[in-house]
Every structure is written in C-alpha cells, then in structure tokens.
Amino acid sequence: MSVRAFIGLGGNLGETRQILDAAIARLGEHSGIRITGRSRFYRTPPWGPVPQPDFVNAAIRIETDLAPHGLLDVLLDTERAFGRVRDGERWGPRVLDLDLLSYGDVTLHDDRLHVPHPRMAERAFVLLPLADIDEGYVVAGQGSVSALLETLGTQGCEPLP
C-alpha cells in the first residue's frame, strides 16, 4: 500500500542548493520512494540561538511503500551520506537536514519519530515550501498550510530564483 508523505529539506553549509538537489535525486532513486511534488528553494533565517548562515529550505511530496520508521532510516542514511553528523546539538549549522513532516494520516510519537512533525505549523521555512506543493494540505489538528501561513510572519524568507 502506498502512502503520501511530505519531507522537509534544509541546509546551510557548503553548496546547499546542489546538496539539496543531490539528496532529492538520491531519495528518488530508492525503490520504495516516488517523488510526486517538489517546492522551490527558499532562503530562510536560521532558527535557534546559534549564530550561523541563512538556510536554504525546500520540501518534497512522495508516495512510499516504506513504513514510517523505514522511511526515517532512509532519511537518516541520506543525511549521513552527505556528511551530516547528529551530535545532539540542536539548531546548529548543518550540511543537510531531512525531516519527515507527515506520513499519510498517521499520528505517531515514540523515541525516534514524531509525525506529523510537532513544530511544522510554527515554522514558515517548512510551510512556505509545502504551500508550493499543496497549499490546501491540512496539518493534522492544526489547519491548512495556507491558513497556518496567514498566522505566521514570513519576514526574511524569500524564494530563490
């Protein structure tokens, strides 16, 4: 059975746009993943207390036969393939960040995975790319992407040519 899922992508170290393009291509080569939508790239201000360069963010919509944790493993393997080291520091600079934003209508909260992503409705850098793909998409229990964007400030976020 195929499930629709959304993945957020970002990074702020190295040749970020090329890295994001390559990560999307790698995900698309996986036998259990079919990419069905892709956003533009956005330049966004960093999130959190660590001084760092702006991020480039995007999102993709996929159809997958993988279970949620299996998809998470593919995302983590892809991050590692591009040099990402998860050392426990949050909100710091990174070469590649892949977040499973949603997985069908599944709500899951365990030690490894929270879907829908618990803070996606608060983050313009997630919602702007999602709006490119499906502005009517409803974040479980929180509203549509377009309605959520109306409540957020998007200053400092800009689409890249």
Strand content: 25-35%
Number of domains: 1
Low-confidence stretches: none
Q: Supply the CATH class.
A: Alpha Beta
Q: What profile does the largest beta sheet have?
A: 6 strands, antiparallel
Q: Whole-number average pLDDT?
A: 93
Over all CA atoms, what is the radius of gyration? 15 Å
Question: What is the distance, rounded to the nearest whole angstrom, between the alpha carbons of the first and last residues?
Answer: 37 Å
Q: How much helical structure, as a percent, in the residues? A: 25-40%
Q: CATH H level: which superfamily?
A: 7,8-Dihydro-6-hydroxymethylpterin-pyrophosphokinase HPPK
Give the helix tally: 4
Shape: globular
Keywords: ATP-binding, Folate biosynthesis, Kinase, Nucleotide-binding, Transferase
EC number: 2.7.6.3
Protein name: 2-amino-4-hydroxy-6-hydroxymethyldihydropteridine pyrophosphokinase
GO molecular function: 2-amino-4-hydroxy-6-hydroxymethyldihydropteridine diphosphokinase activity
Question: Secondary-structure blueprint of this entry?
Answer:
Blueprint: E1 3-11, H1 16-29, E2 33-38, E3 42-44, E4 55-64, H2 68-81, E5 97-103, E6 108-109, E7 114-115, H3 124-134, E8 138-139, E9 143-144, H4 145-151, E10 158-159
Antiparallel strand pairs: 1-4, 1-5, 2-4, 3-4, 3-10, 6-7, 8-9
Protein model, in words:
- This protein has one domain (3-159): 7,8-Dihydro-6-hydroxymethylpterin-pyrophosphokinase HPPK (Alpha-Beta Plaits).
- It has helices at residues 16-29, 68-81, 124-134, 145-151; strands spanning 3-11, 33-38, 42-44, 55-64, 97-103, 108-109, 114-115, 138-139, 143-144, 158-159.
- It is α+β, with helices and mostly antiparallel strands.
- Strands 1, 2, 3, 4, 5 and 10 form a 6-stranded antiparallel beta sheet that branches. A two-stranded antiparallel sheet has the order 6-7.
- Strand 6 (108-109) and strand 7 form a beta hairpin.
- The chain contains 4 helices and 10 strands; from the N terminus they run E-H-E-E-E-H-E-E-E-H-E-E-H-E.
- The chain starts with a strand and ends with a strand.
- Pathway: Cofactor biosynthesis; tetrahydrofolate biosynthesis; 2-amino-4-hydroxy-6-hydroxymethyl-7,8-dihydropteridine diphosphate from 7,8-dihydroneopterin triphosphate: step 4/4.
- Belongs to the HPPK family.
- InterPro entries: Hppk, Hppk_sf.
